[in-house]
# Entry
Amino acid sequence: MHALIVVSHPDPNSLTHAIAASVGEGIACDKANSFEIADIAAEGFDPRFTAVDLAVHRRQATAPGDVVAEQARIDRADALVLVYPVYWWSMPGLLKGWIDRVFSNGWAYDERADMKLVKKLHHLPVHLVAVGGADMRTYARHGYFGAMKTQIDHGIFGYCGARVVTSELIVEQSGREDNRLETARSIGCTLFSKQTSRAA
# Structure
């Protein structure tokens, strides 16, 4: 099984990148599994939704090469993993722009002329790993994590029919040993077994 891990953070030495690498280590615990890390900041992915992307959405143009390449990476994967820091109680603009452009009409879903929506990513298991800068009490007290799940898990992936198997918020536990990298590694170790049990 093969996982595509998309990481969105401009600093390669960040905790977010370390967590993405730890998820990959966990996946590789089973020698039958493989993974690819797509560092969209380092790769220079352009997140701007332009007139060309709008024409693709309206089915008036074919997707540009950078979008087609990202869609092909997802198509090659048995699972999609997104690892990102929480910015303003959501994902970074770079990752949101990646989704805006890559999860396009005609590939991720079909908006038909009769107003019927066809979800096209039922085959794609998704694992979300958000890295928070506040403690869990803050997220719970204000309902932020629930709001993020509504927006991202349901609003984005539910719209396309993709199954969100993991939706994890990794935060520092004050007064406890920092086990965030071990948590990430554990997510990777159980990634494909969780998918199988959820699908059954």
